[in-house]
Amino acid sequence: MSAYGTKVVAVLDTASTFGTTIKAMRESMVTRGLLTTNGLNVPTVAPASPNDGDIYFDKTALKLKIWVDDGSSQQWVQL
After folding, report:
1. pTM of the entire structure?
2. Residue ranges making up the domain that contains 62
């Protein structure tokens, strides 16, 4: 059980409408070096071959975006 209780763990492990979990996205970001103990490393250029959960800051639109692959579509979604 989490230090925050079972409800928090259930939310983190429950698939979102995008077909992934917050926990899985966090682990993926750590693996790719986007999330570190010192903070969040946000690139300002979209990756050429994005993976589910990749993020970047669109300097033209001034928007933070995340790549979502829900199994039936793939797209950048504004956060």
Report:
1. 0.56
2. 6-78
